[in-house]
Design brief:
Layout: H1 24-55, H2 64-83, E1 84-92, E2 95-100, H3 103-121, E3 131-139, H4 146-154, E4 160-168, E5 171-176, H5 179-190, E6 198-203, E7 207-215, H6 222-230, E8 232-240, H7 247-253, H8 258-264, E9 278-286, E10 290-302, E11 306-315, E12 319-323, E13 328-339, E14 342-355, E15 360-367, E16 385-388, E17 391-395, E18 398-402, E19 405-408, E20 414-416, E21 421-428, E22 438-443, E23 448-455, E24 457-458, E25 465-466, E26 471-474, E27 485-492, E28 495-497
Parallel strand pairs: 11-15
Antiparallel strand pairs: 1-2, 1-3, 4-5, 4-7, 6-10, 8-9, 10-13, 12-15, 13-14, 16-19, 17-18, 19-27, 20-26, 21-22, 21-25, 22-23, 23-27, 24-26, 27-28
Bound molecules: zinc ion.
Length: about 500
């Protein structure tokens, strides 16, 4: 087969009517081919007659020599008629493309090339060029493989190139001429999360790089691709409050102002967060998230086993440490999984005990608690509408400090002791404290006191032990008051604090 002469970048134009007249030389060849074929047909006919004579009478065996002679001639005839075929040499603007069976075959090739170009470019495409066809007799094997012609024409299209295409979850990001450029780019995206301990790194999305045909004006800007892959979107996640947390610190740690974090947590009292509570926090999510696994080896304390000893000299719920115990130590090897640098999972592979912990011994009280003994938390003294909160306020036209909360409810409603304790004052407040009216003060130990003001009547006396929930007074409007309510105040170490932060 003749090789196709590729002349890259030669413009290709198409002529719509493609069946030309046979050139004179081709007519001559055709005649000769027909003469030869006729001669062969005659020879085959003669041999068939001989063969029929040889088998006439039925009993005579065919002479093997005759048989093979016939077979040979029949074979030659078959070869002649199947080997040679009319064909057309195709040129486009003078560039030889190959030999095809007929112009229509070439037309179909052009159609396929144009369809491929259209699907890649996303618009109509017409292959330009002037095809010419020369008739010739060819051996069948000399016909050019049409796929070669198709590939050649396809590669002449300047608007299309072969490149490596980067996709994330099927979304086209960009392309590069070298596969290594994209591999390098993806490595850079992972780089901030990869440490010397990283044993594997991956993307949470499906990232593919395939060689494809693309338009030549496709995005080849690696920097723009990097920016797109690492761009953050604002997501939201939850944070579980741990001991020592404050609302403000959680906000700061997560790159938010208190106001921004309040907006994410509209129903939360920022002064009243508690351990285990879930808060909404903002989360920056990169377009392409990276999962890494680090293999870490570190020392970890082993908690002391605890032994409890009963002690009848202490009240129930009280404990005392007899022996603190010394924690042990373990050498731990773990695979830690991170997503964008945040730990998601920790799988302990090995834990070798370096030192055993010693036992921690504590005494646990068994003595029955007196009913008036404080439980360590406060219940609401009355239920009602809070008409004035803790802090600065305007009252009677002047700006003043309010040391407690005012809970409005009906005259005569029973006021409960917020916790058990000892009454230290019960009666009409005087002097500096006159504005409380009828007042009860309960001491709960550990520097904690509660005040109940403006009572209509008082049911306890100084020195009494009262239990949590015991009715100690009744709601009224004595002292500096404009209506029936209970002024409830909590003091710790002599300082008024916001009761709402302590009520449960
Ligand atoms: Zn008040």
């Amino acid at each position: 087969m003749d090789e196709i002469l590729y002349q890259p970048n030669s413009p290709v134009r198409r002529r719509p009517n493609a069946a030309p007249d046979l050139p004179e030389s081709a007519v001559h060849w055709k005649e000769r081919w027909e003469e030869g074929a006729e001669a062969l047909r005659q020879a085959i006919k003669n041999l068939r007659l001989k063969l029929d004579e040889a088998t006439a009478g039925g009993r005579r065996l065919v002479n093997p020599v005759h048989f093979f002679a016939v077979a040979a001639v029949v074979g030659v005839a078959a070869v002649v008629s199947t080997v040679y075929t009319p064909s057309y040499a195709v040129t486009m603007d003078g560039v030889p493309l190959g030999v095809v069976r007929n112009p229509q075959v070439f037309e179909e090739v052009v159609d396929r090339v144009e369809a491929r170009a259209e699907s890649i470019l996303g618009r109509g495409y017409v292959l330009e060029g002037e095809p010419a066809f020369d008739f010739a007799l060819s051996e069948r094997g000399e016909l050019t493989d049409v796929r070669e012609i198709e590939e050649y024409l396809f590669h002449q299209i300047d608007e299309i190139m072969s490149s490596y295409v980067l996709k994330v979850d099927g979304q086209f990001i960009g392309a590069a001429l070298e596969e290594s450029s994209l591999e390098e780019l993806l490595k850079e995206v992972k780089a901030p999360y990869v440490t010397e301990n990283t044993v594997s790194s991956d993307f949470t999305s499906r990232v593919t790089v395939f060689q494809e045909y693309t338009p030549t004006d496709v995005n080849l800007d690696l920097e723009a691709m990097f920016a797109q892959l690492t761009e953050n979107t604002n997501g939201q996640t939850t944070y579980e409050v741990v001991k020592g947390d404050t609302f403000m610190q959680i906000a700061l740690d997560n790159g938010m102002t208190v106001r921004e974090m309040q907006e994410l947590n509209p129903d939360i009292n920022i002064d009243l967060i508690h351990i285990g509570q879930l808060l909404n926090i903002r989360e920056e999510i990169p377009f392409l998230s990276v999962t890494t696994v680090d293999r870490l080896t570190y020392h970890e304390p082993i908690e002391c086993p605890v032994e409890q000893l009963e002690d009848s000299s202490m009240y129930q719920g009280e404990t005392r440490v007899i022996e603190a115990g010394i924690p042990g130590e373990a050498l731990v090897t773990a695979d830690v999984t991170y997503v964008n640098g945040r730990e998601q999972d920790r799988e302990i592979l090995e834990s070798e005990t370096l030192s055993e912990p010693t036992t921690r011994v504590i005494a646990v009280g068994t003595k029955v608690r007196p009913s008036w003994y404080p439980n360590g938390y406060f219940i609401w003294p009355v239920y009602g509408h809070i008409t004035s909160r803790f802090g600065y306020r305007s009252i009677f036209g002047s700006y003043s400090y309010h040391g407690g909360i005012d809970i409005a409810t009906a005259y005569g409603t029973g006021i409960a002791a917020a916790d058990g304790g000892t009454v230290t004052f019960a009666g009409r407040a005087t002097g500096y404290n006159w504005s409380y009216g009828n007042l009860v003060i309960v001491d709960h130990g550990n520097g904690k006191q509660t005040y109940y003001g403006h009572c209509s009547s008082i049911l306890v006396s100084a020195g009494d032990h009262v239990y949590q929930g015991q009715t100690i007074a009744r709601v009224g409007s004595t002292g500096r008051s404009t209506g029936n309510h209970c002024h409830f105040e909590v003091k710790i170490g002599g300082t008024s604090v916001n009761p709402l932060a302590y009520l449960s």
